[in-house]
Backbone:
């Protein structure tokens, strides 16, 4: 059972680097206290991220990623991408409602909403119905206003300076 | 020896929650790739943070914290706080110059500069003289303009909404 007395809704959004890292850093802190963390990654499944090689070595952290390992650009989105995002959302609902994990991280869920892979209203339902002792963390750029209004803690990560603008390539171990 | 071909200067600043977590999430990713991370915490030593209970269980992450476990408000700062921050800076210089760790995280160093515990010019020297294959990550609010100018990647974390404004108390496992 969850050890938090009062779980909040946290949002990490904006165009800056570090949203997922901030959520994972928080997971690290939580697991250091014996809290239980469940991470559901929207869109990201199939990509090879450095953190995936270490997270399963940590106690009390479970991670499930849903995605096909490629960027989603099609408008309207392809059926297969919608199907995977809906599966991720279904799991998010189950895990949150069950209340057995202290923290549920919904990584890149804001992007999944923005790309119309999942319905905003269904995410709002999950948030509104969450057990009191469960903390939900939503990441991804373009967080919808409705979610920001519901959240207790919102941090915007702003890109002030980024080497990718100068054609810099993503580096293994740092950017992925 | 460092495995990065080209190490950058990253800065996480601003008044929002998640600067240290973003750096620690990055450390998690890096260690998942077999990179070596050295974390030097300015000001924070003596506080009990959740992440400290788990970081030493991770491979390739070393953490040294310097501080007295209380907030620094005195102006001018007390000698003991200056001494500890200078020790942290000395270690930062040694570890960076040695080039044996891929990533050096200087947590809250911006605050140490802002509080006049250490000299901005000495931090600039460390950055300018760093070996090519070492990545330096500087965190803390109020990053000085000179450091932002030197950095390759700067992210500002902006507090959009925070429950502390409503008198909410910090929670074990989440805020510390």
Residues:
């Amino acid at each position: 059972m969850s050890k938090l007395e009062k779980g909040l809704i946290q949002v990490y959004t904006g165009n800056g680097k570090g949203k997922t890292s901030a959520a994972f850093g928080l997971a690290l802190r939580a697991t250091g206290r014996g809290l239980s963390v469940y991470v559901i990654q929207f869109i990201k499944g199939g990509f090879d991220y450095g953190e995936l090689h270490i997270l399963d070595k940590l106690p009390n952290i479970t991670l499930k990623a849903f995605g096909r390992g490629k960027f989603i650009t099609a408008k309207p989105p392809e059926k297969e991408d919608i199907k995977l995002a809906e599966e991720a959302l279904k799991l998010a609902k189950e895990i949150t409602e069950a209340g057995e994990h202290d923290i549920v991280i919904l990584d890149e869920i804001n992007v999944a909403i923005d790309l119309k892979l999942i319905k905003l209203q269904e995410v709002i339902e999950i948030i509104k119905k969450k057990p009191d002792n469960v903390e939900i963390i939503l990441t991804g750029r373009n967080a919808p206003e409705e979610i920001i209004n519901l959240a207790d803690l919102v941090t915007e990560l702003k890109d002030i300076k980024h080497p990718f603008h100068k054609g810099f390539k993503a580096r293994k171990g740092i950017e992925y």
Summary: The mean pLDDT of chain B is 92. The radius of gyration of chain B is 16 Å.
